[in-house]
Amino acid sequence: MEIERRQRQPRLNITENLAGYLFITPTILVMGTFVVLPILYAVFLSLQKVQLLGGIKYQFIGFRNFTRLVEDERVWIALGNTVQYVVIVVPTQTILALILAVTLNSGIRGKNWWRILYFLPTVTSSAVLTLIFMWIYNTDGLLNDFLAFAGLPTYNWLGDPAVALKGIMLMNIWSTAPFYMVIYLAALQDIPQTLYEAAELDGANQWQKFIRITVPILKPVTFFVMAVGVIGTFQLFDQSYIFSNGNGGPNNATLTIVLLIYQAVFRNLQMGYAAAIAFLLAAVIITTTLIQRRFFGGEKI
After folding, report:
1. Interval 159-177 mean pLDDT
2. What is the span of the domain harbouring residue 221?
3. Contact, 218 vs 226, CB < 8 A?
4. Would you say residue 110 lies in a domain?
5. Are 278 and 261 in contact (CB under 8 A)?
6. Same domain, yes or no: 134 and 268
7. Do 154 and 6 lie in a common domain?
8. Looking at the domain assignment, is residue 109 inside a domain?
9. Which parts of the chain fold into alpha helices (H)?
10. Burial of 89 (0-12, 13-18, 19+ CB in 10 A)
11. What is the pLDDT of residues 63-101, one digit of tens each?
């Protein structure tokens, strides 16, 4: 009996392993087709000079595309605009989302209606929102009318390089903060009320409870919100494209890395150079996410 049981055990292990591999095969195929192969092809393209007209032809040029992007002034302008956008938008939308979530979680009247009202911009098409804000930002639009009524200086939001990118920032903070608000709201409702009751017994006020209990417990959620926010903001494209009609103007003020990749592929037909810029963007996103993980304790998620 013991010998038969030992002989049967390897067969069961093989069967279990085979079943496991069969279950994960669809995932492996999807990941391989839509993730691994595109990355490998992008690596191949970044080392080539690609001719698209008259048939696709490849010419190996090594790392020349990467040395070119280091010398390209527009790459650094686009990277500077994108970093400025990320540095301002991500912390602002995170703080605003947390404030909205705490407010809605405090038991105000009609909070379900407020949730719906706040969340509406998130489910609205980005292109539609951009067109609406272009109308608001017009020189004789709603925003300038309000600023003039309040006695404040007006701006040419669409044509002034000093404020064009800030107009996109305002729009995206307003439209994306509600999405992260819902994430924070779900996390707030999981915090045990006994912690707040114990803090009250020790004489803690609302601000102390927020700083000593709410913020530390939400640290992993904050990492997630900021990581997703960084990845999304570094990929800014559609709003910048619509605002500037694809040019990144005025005076490259709204030029972003992804818009530059678009121009390299569809206007200049430089697929190899675009792939090299894409790897620069990927390196920046990965580095920024690792820094966030270090400071916000993402390993606890």
Report:
1. 90
2. 65-300
3. no
4. yes
5. yes
6. yes
7. no
8. yes
9. 2-31, 37-46, 64-71, 73-104, 111-123, 126-137, 142-149, 164-188, 193-201, 206-209, 215-217, 219-234, 238-244, 257-262, 271-296
10. buried
11. 999 999 899 999 999 999 999 999 999 999 999 999 988
Do 31 and 101 lie in a common domain?
Answer: no
CATH code: domain of residue 221: 1.10.3720.10
Judgement on whether residues 19 and 129 belong to the same structural domain of the protein: no
The DSSP symbol for 49 reads E
The partner residues of 51 in beta bridges, in order of sequence, read: 57
pTM here is 0.85
Per DSSP, the three-state class of 157 is coil
- Per-residue CA distances from 288 to 179, 219, 237, 280 (Å): 21, 17, 19, 12
- What span, in angstroms and rounded, lies between the C-alpha atoms of 174 and 256? 20
Report the alpha-carbon distance of residue 121 to residue 129 in Å, rounded.
8
Torsion of CA 179, 142, 167, 173, to 10 degrees: -10
